[in-house]
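<context>
A single protein, sequence plus fold
<entry> Chain with its tokenised backbone below
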Amino acid sequence: MEPHLIPPKDLPYIWSEVAPLINKAVAHSNHETDAECFFLPIYTGQQYLWVGIENNQINSALVCEVLKYPFKTALFIHVWSTRSGKDYEPWMEHWSSITDFAKINGCNYIEAKVRKGLAKKLNWTDKHSLVTLQL
């Protein structure tokens, strides 16, 4: 399941498939956001949407944003969801698409706020469920 970066102009055509995946992921948070909060930032190019397609169906979604800190730049993953709630391994086989995107955008690392179970699976540095991957 190779990740595909969705151009903002295509977002309205796939949103009905993506929004439930995003809502599934944020259901594990403190309910500070929902899928609709991501639509406009993705559509205007402030955030980015990646999807995993398998058998002509969107099976996963990742929403990220380039964050510029004073000394470093990060690709922050706001949401990462799969239809099954697991099965992240197919993404990891093609993770270089995401890391290359981060590097092209001047990022020094990738960070994500994730549930503890996913932090263990990723084998990234776990910092209070804020995990990082140095590039």
Residues 18 and 116 are 23 Å apart (CA to CA). The first strand starts at residue 3 and ends at 6. The mean pLDDT is 86.
